[in-house]
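Record type: monomer structure entry
Structure origin: computed from sequence
Chain ID: A
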Amino acid sequence: MTAVLVLYRASGAPVSTAFRPGGLGADDPFAPWREIAWQGSGAMSAGRLRFEGKLEIARFPHVETLTVVQGEVTVETAGAAPLVLTPGSGMVIGVGTALRVTASSQALLMFCAAECAQATHAGVFPLRAEANFKPSTTVMDPKLLLGPVPQCRSDNVINEESIKYLAGTWDATPYHRIVRAHPVNEFMHILDGDVYFAQPDGSVETAGPGDAIFVAQGASIGWESRARVAKFYVVQTVVAASEEN
């Protein structure tokens, strides 16, 4: 299994990741535009959308994080000002949300979605690089590090506890971590800094500002960042989600 799936390169360089067209179920409103790169058994999917037009959605059927890499998307919900998404911004859509999505010309978005039968968070939750960061409560095990323990901050905008789906914005001071099995499924849209992902075969995959990647639970990777790194992220700790189709 490839340790790091590159979904998008901000440089415009082609990616080797294979995508297949398809929806995330019979009610998926984005099915005609969706291209799937990874799909776990009944849990999480990741890939890209090339969307243009207008969608009226009465009830969003799953939880989904979307980040814009090209174009502009406007999202409208009852009682709220329109949310305009441009490259470097995004949103999380909760299950059961009614919304209108519009793109006057083709926009390219990265997605990370998961089924959620017992949702507790309806609505649209914006993702911004200028996040309301707070010190992270997760402490890294020094035995996994090849240098100082970093200072990490996060701004979590949604936590669907029933499916262990957590999304938001995160940043950290530089750090270097050994190659080990990744404990979660994780989507990353890099906002600032470069990350060097060491893979078991000795190769290194680099991701920088504007790039989007996905790492499946159980994939063996290392991490090295030499300056501050910030990212939009989704993590999910569900055993079944590590099964790749």
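Annotation 1: The two ends are 11 Å apart (CA to CA).
Annotation 2: Confidence is low (pLDDT under 50) at residues 240-245.
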